[in-house]
Amino acid sequence: MAMFSDKIRIRLKAYDSRILDQSTGEIVETAKRTGARLAGPIPLPTRRERWTVLRSPHVDKKSREQFELRTHKRLIDIVDSRPQTIDALTKLDLPAGVDVEIKL
Q1: Contact, 46 vs 73, CB < 8 A?
Q2: How far is residue 48's CA from residue 86's CA, in Å, rounded to a whole number?
Q3: Per-residue pLDDT reduced to its tens digit, 59-85
Q4: Residues 6+ apart with CB under 8 A from 76
Q5: What is the tens place of the pLDDT at every residue in 34-53?
Q6: Which ranges constitute the DSSP H helices of 34-91?
Q7: Are residues 46 and 70 in contact, defined by beta-carbon separation less than 8 angstroms?
Q8: Which end of the chain lies in a sparser environment, N or C, as judged by fewer CB atoms within 10 Å?
């Protein structure tokens, strides 16, 4: 049995942390089921974007409204992958709000 030592790095991004954690759980479960060794999921720093907007353009100059957009990120490294692992990961159906980046 030939062992592959290909390292696969999977980066996940989402605005909703619950969907992101659910997706990482599915990926980890699939990788373990195929017999691959993995490191993670590692939570990366959350990116926060903030905007301050005037509520009214004319009268209330001191009245402002603040908005925030958070981008949550996770990192999974699959250290020893097999061909079955790659096939299973490509067949995974992840939720719509998750951005997946795979580096081989």
Answers
A1: yes
A2: 33
A3: 878 888 999 999 999 999 888 777 788
A4: 9, 10, 12, 24, 27, 28, 31, 38, 39, 40, 41, 42
A5: 888 888 789 999 999 999 99
A6: 83-90
A7: yes
A8: N
